[in-house]
């Protein structure tokens, strides 16, 4: 079980030129072992910040990240950092930028094995990398090639093989298919689901794309301006979205409700996080906003098995 618990993810400070922003505030969730939680939202909502926080690239000013009860912040700072790193790996959006073009695939995928002392010599390294490449649908002989010899989808398979090298339990996937063609996206997502089943992996899956999230998630957290505004099981979220922002995102996906009505593009723009709106930060874009919304920030509240932060929902007028 992976817990990111409430008041503590409070106030993650992200350094911007001459200013600090509360990039993420009051974000709280748990992921059951072997399951996928997706965080979804438009760019700038703080979902990548959450990912970087979990792997220790950022520190939180309050709050904690627990992996099976172990405090990760203490873990990253202490002698257990390497062990923690083996258990949690990250897959990034851009397989072009994240693979060193001058390295053979053998060395790219084998680097974590070497770094963590998981192989004794060159022959064992070659064998283990071959197994990893086959597990992601590539050939063992591909280890002798360089990244530029592969397509985008194949490169993301190489990234996944590298992430699996230390036999992690938990993978943080930040827009892992966003740079790929739609047909290739589905293949990579299916591979990730197969690997999850075979290895009991737990995923935090970050995406701006609800159609992708629908394909992979068990639970979905919708983020807006650094906060989770709705957190629900996937089926519930897609069949009965409560938060007006979730509805706006769903209405922008073609055919999601199978009603045949035209999709409505997402309206308005994400406000500047340096100067967020008062009250509910969604109020300038919200069709249900009233005077209270511009004054008072709604907190995330349990409501019929889901969590949602919206006055209209708690007042029964949504
Ligand atoms: Fe809209 Fe008000 Fe709900 Fe915010 S709190 S989402 S502005 S109805
Ligand atoms: Mg991002």
Automatic annotation (TrEMBL):
Keywords of this entry: ATP-binding, Cell membrane, Membrane, Nucleotide-binding, Transport
GO molecular function terms noted in the UniProt entry: ATP binding
Pfam families tied to this protein: ABC_tran, oligo_HPY
CDD domains hit by this protein: ABC_NikE_OppD_transporters
SMART domains noted in UniProt: AAA
Domain of life of the native organism: Bacteria
Keyword hit for Coiled coil: no
Domain ABC transporter: 1-250
PROSITE patterns per record: ABC_TRANSPORTER_1, ABC_TRANSPORTER_2
Stored NCBIfam families: oligo_HPY
Family per record: Belongs to the ABC transporter superfamily.
Record-given protein name: ATP-binding cassette domain-containing protein
